[in-house]
């Protein structure tokens, strides 16, 4: 991770970013992610004096929420989300 080649690449990235900022350009970062909306419901039952055993109901699949956004150092330019079918 901190290999000399990676340090050099990070240094080049920062220099290019500073050059663009010096020219008055605004950097915009774009990223996307998914969130699984499934929440597992568990119940536990036991007889008196016995250890409770967890019983899972339903499937382990849920809907996903897909989020994509574009931000700069001062603004949020774009943000959208979509639920999977």
Keywords:
single chain, 85 residues, 38% strand, elongated
Molecular structure report:
With 85 residues, the protein is of the alpha+beta class. It has one helix spanning 4-22, and strands at residues 29-36, 42-45, 53-56, 64-71, 76-83. The chain has one domain. β4 (64-71) and β5 form a beta hairpin. The longest helix has 19 residues, at 4-22. The protein is elongated.
Uncertain segments are none
> Could you say which overall geometry the principal axes of the C-alpha atoms support?
elongated
Structural class: alpha+beta
Number of strands: 5
Number of domains: 1
Order of helices and strands: HEEEEE
Spatial extent as radius of gyration: 24 Å
Distance N terminus to C terminus? 38 Å
* SS field, number of helical segments: 1
Largest sheet entry: 3 strands, antiparallel
Q: Could you report the average pLDDT, rounded to the nearest whole number?
A: 86
Residues in helix, %: 10-25%
Strands ordered across the widest β-sheet: 1-4-5
Share of β-strand residues: 35-45%
Organism: Aphanomyces astaci (Crayfish plague agent)
Protein name: DDE-1 domain-containing protein
Topology:
Layout (H helix, E strand, L loop, with lengths): L3 H19 L6 E8 L5 E4 L7 E4 L7 E8 L4 E8 L2
Short overview:
With 85 residues, the chain is of the alpha+beta class. The chain has one helix at residues 4-22; strands at 29-36, 42-45, 53-56, 64-71, 76-83.
């Amino acid at each position: 991770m901190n290999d000399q080649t990676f340090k050099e690449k990070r240094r080049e990235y920062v220099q290019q970013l500073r050059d663009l900022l010096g020219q008055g350009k605004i950097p915009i970062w774009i990223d996307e992610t998914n969130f699984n909306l499934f929440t597992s419901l568990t119940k536990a039952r036991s007889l008196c004096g016995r250890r409770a055993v967890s019983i899972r109901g339903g499937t382990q699949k849920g809907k996903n929420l897909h989020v994509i956004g574009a931000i700069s150092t001062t603004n949020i330019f774009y943000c959208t989300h979509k639920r999977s079918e």
